[in-house]
Design goal:
single chain; about 120 residues; Rossmann fold; about 20% strand; 5 helices; alpha/beta
Length: about 120
């Protein structure tokens, strides 16, 4: 079981991920943008941050960099549907800045859970 924060501006994505993660026993927190996520992380210890790459207020790469700097023990998983500029690989950039995993939207429940397990030190299978 992990304490997971889902940072995404899309409420339906947050709701779906919360349902999947709570179903298998994870404790889930939500934030609608990077700023809110960082504030919540100052108040609440988490193990994993799942961060959307394209958000208003504070985009995902910047949020990932700040998480790695301010909360080095928190594992970060970047997720993206590609965005407006498909030539710009947000997931690759997030990996270069320390994300331990990436998820290309849409992704399956199994991909989500495997990514969390892998980041937490499991075998990923």
């Amino acid at each position: 079981m992990a304490r997971v924060i889902v940072i995404d501006d899309d409420v339906s994505v947050r709701y779906s991920l919360r349902a999947i993660l709570e179903e298998v026993g994870h404790i889930v927190f939500e934030a609608k943008n990077g700023n809110d996520g960082l504030v919540l992380m100052e108040e609440t210890a988490v193990d994993v941050a799942i961060v959307d790459m394209i958000m208003p207020v504070k985009e995902g790469v910047e949020t990932t960099i700040q998480i790695r700097s301010q909360f080095p023990s928190v594992k970060t998983i970047a997720m993206s549907g590609g965005g407006r500029n498909q030539n710009f690989d947000f997931l690759q950039i997030a990996s270069e800045y320390g994300a331990c995993g990436t998820l290309q939207k849409p992704f399956s429940k199994e991909q989500l859970l495997t990514s969390i397990e892998s980041c937490m030190g499991g075998d990923g299978d």
